């Protein structure tokens, strides 16, 4: 009797009856549908990136820029870095450069962490600057060692700590022994007794 009942409803209600006895399958279909949405979003993002690359190759930055911004806000790291670079070096818009550098830093790009820290340091936002420069250094960004050591030396965004300054200075010298800034910094630390 149950199978007739299901069959009877199948004819009258169409696919709705499939939801009742096959709830386990419906759950899988839901996951599949969510996966399809994510696939569609990725496909759309890829289309936007492909389009802005073509526009950039054609030299049409004004048309490409809104697409770059869109992809950046959708979380594409490459687009975030590109937008930051364009706003900093080509369009000379530091506020927008800061925004996109922040997005890339929060997306895990260590060079962007350092760049954001340096921008914030210029703005005298030392606590935030220290956070991002330290995060970049801890992630292995060797260019972050010198400014991190300097911030420890001067107590910018952190209590003054000459031992930490020395540690990061030595890390920097190990990575880049010819760096004149690190060498000067090392001499200052030696004169301070470190």
TrEMBL record:
SUPFAM superfamilies listed in its UniProt record: HCP-like
SMART domains reported for this sequence: SEL1
Cross-referenced Gene3D superfamilies: Tetratricopeptide repeat domain (1.25.40.10)
InterPro entries in alphabetical order: Mitotic_Regulator, Sel1-like, TPR-like_helical_dom_sf
Superkingdom, taxonomy of origin: Bacteria
Identification of the protein by name: Sel1 repeat family protein
